[in-house]
């Protein structure tokens, strides 16, 4: 590489091209990192950290913590890149297309999926077959968050990974006719799998699946309800696309000027307030049903603030999943294997948990009231700077107002649930 080229080329690319760097695991990792970032036109981010000898395992974290990515756009691209890496690039709902020409990077007109890059590195899509073992191992240590010693290579290579439950190219259909083979077999052959609607399993794809994430995080936005509309509350979540959303956080400056801070988050899928429960099922649980027949365990759970729609979203899923399970069980290919189906259902949300969480909310509100009382006592002292106290009091009071509103809503839901569970109307027996 000539001196001129080296200067004008981004440092990350120079690290990759340097022949002396290919031999060690660490430098191999730098090169992989550089190529990975280059695939999204972010190669300039690798140079400051990689050249200072930062442990390449920490690089993605450091980049996300703001040591590298400066602009919102860079952070967004980096997030998408990391997500694509997680999913081997194939599940990305849309390519992570750069909006500007980065220095030495890929031009807009070429795009990440230009033939030049498709064969090597797509946006976060690593061609594992084109890498040597050293590169692959450093990549694995990056992706899996732990260091792989070359002496452990055999162990690592023999460690079995379960196939992903979320292979995006899979479009399982439960409605098609299944021409089942009659032979009894524990594990369906590739032919029977294809006949049952599974994608044909080839060895190349298996290798790719091995590096695919096993967890899929899907966010569903609940519509603003009537009470929130009546209270003229703002809708603070905007779904940007099917994989990212923006939270608009209302804030107050010290001088009490209101402003809104935007926070962008990326997920594997984001469903807006218009999606139906069936669509939620199609994105979340449906793809994992056939995997259960390959003796893989699958779990689906909801996480979220109270009133955010966990019950509304989760309640129909077991029924839909059971329907599909039954349909698959009746296909000749599985009927011959004599699978058995057990179902159990319980809600981990008893009376005590309800009361405990309600008590916590009351305690939080009381804490704010105590803060307010303390401030009031201070402001009452002679010579106190009234301006400061007024500002602080406003903060405390606005927090209290918000708390009281949420407490009120919580109380209504609490009563509703108690009624639902027939706790309020239950007649007390003689003591
Ligand atoms: N996607 C939605 N579309 C329409 N209504 C919804 C949606 N999600 C939730 N809701 C409504 O919002 C309210 C709160 O939802 P839900 O009870 O599911 O919340 P939750 O997260 O389970 O709350 P908690 O943690 O208190 O049990 C319910 O009245 C529900 O019908």
TrEMBL record:
Top-level taxon of origin: Eukaryota
Keyword terms: ATP-binding, Cytoplasm, Cytoskeleton, Microtubule, Motor protein, Nucleotide-binding
Family: Belongs to the TRAFAC class myosin-kinesin ATPase superfamily. Kinesin family.
Start-end of Polar residues biased regions: 1-10
Gene Ontology molecular function: ATP binding; microtubule binding; microtubule motor activity
Protein name as it appears in the record: Kinesin motor domain-containing protein
Region described as Disordered: spans on this chain: 1-29, 177-205
Domain Kinesin motor stretches: 214-431
GO CC annotation: microtubule
UniProt binding sites for ATP: 304-311
Protein's cellular compartments: Cytoplasm, Cytoskeleton
Pfam families, per database record: Kinesin
Primary location recorded for the protein, binned into one broad class: cytoplasm
GO biological-process terms attached to the record: microtubule depolymerization; microtubule-based movement
Keyword Cytoplasm in annotation: yes
Classification via InterPro entries: Kinesin-like_fam (IPR027640), Kinesin_motor_dom (IPR001752), Kinesin_motor_dom_sf (IPR036961), P-loop_NTPase (IPR027417)
């Amino acid at each position: 590489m000539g001196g001129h080229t080296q200067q004008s080329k981004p440092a990350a690319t120079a690290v990759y091209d340097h022949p002396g760097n290919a031999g060690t695991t660490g430098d191999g990792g730098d090169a992989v990192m550089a190529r990975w970032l280059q695939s999204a036109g972010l190669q300039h981010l690798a140079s400051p950290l990689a050249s200072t000898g930062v442990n390449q395992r920490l690089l993605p974290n450091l980049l996300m913590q703001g040591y590298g990515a400066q602009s919102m756009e860079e952070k967004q691209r980096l997030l998408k890149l990391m997500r694509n890496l997680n999913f081997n690039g194939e599940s990305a709902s849309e390519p992570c297309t750069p909006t500007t020409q980065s220095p030495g990077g890929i031009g807009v007109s070429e795009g990440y999926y230009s033939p030049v890059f498709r064969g090597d590195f797509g946006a976060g899509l690593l061609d594992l077959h084109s890498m040597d073992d050293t590169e692959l191992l450093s990549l694995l240590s990056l992706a899996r968050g732990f260091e792989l010693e070359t002496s452990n290579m055999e162990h690592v290579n023999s460690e079995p990974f379960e196939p992903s439950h979320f292979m995006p190219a899979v479009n399982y259909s439960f409605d098609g006719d299944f021409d089942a083979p009659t032979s009894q077999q524990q594990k369906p052959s590739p032919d029977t799998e294809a006949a049952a609607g599974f994608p044909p399993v080839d060895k190349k794809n298996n290798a790719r699946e091995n590096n695919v994430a096993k967890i899929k995080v899907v966010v569903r936005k609940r519509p603003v309800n009537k009470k929130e509309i009546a209270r003229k509350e703002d809708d603070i979540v905007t779904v940007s696309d099917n994989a990212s959303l923006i939270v608009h956080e209302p804030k107050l400056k010290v001088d009490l000027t209101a402003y809104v801070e935007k926070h962008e988050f990326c997920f594997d899928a984001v469903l807006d307030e218009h999606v139906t429960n069936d669509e939620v099922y199609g994105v979340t649980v449906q793809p994992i049903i056939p995997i259960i027949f390959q003796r893989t365990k699958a779990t689906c759970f909801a996480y979220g603030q109270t009133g955010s729609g966990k019950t509304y979203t989760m309640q129909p899923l077991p029924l839909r999943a059971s329907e599909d399970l039954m349909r698959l069980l009746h296909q000749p290919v599985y009927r011959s294997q004599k699978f058995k189906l057990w179902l159990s259902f319980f809600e981990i949300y008893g009376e005590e948990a309800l009361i405990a969480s309600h008590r916590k909310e009351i305690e939080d509100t009381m804490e704010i009231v105590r803060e307010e009382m303390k401030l009031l006592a201070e402001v009452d002292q002679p010579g106190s700077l009234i301006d400061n106290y007024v500002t602080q009091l406003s903060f405390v009071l606005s927090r209290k107002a918000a708390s009281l509103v949420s407490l009120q809503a919580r109380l209504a839901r609490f009563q509703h649930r108690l009624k639902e569970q027939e706790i309020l109307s239950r007649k007390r027996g003689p003591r």
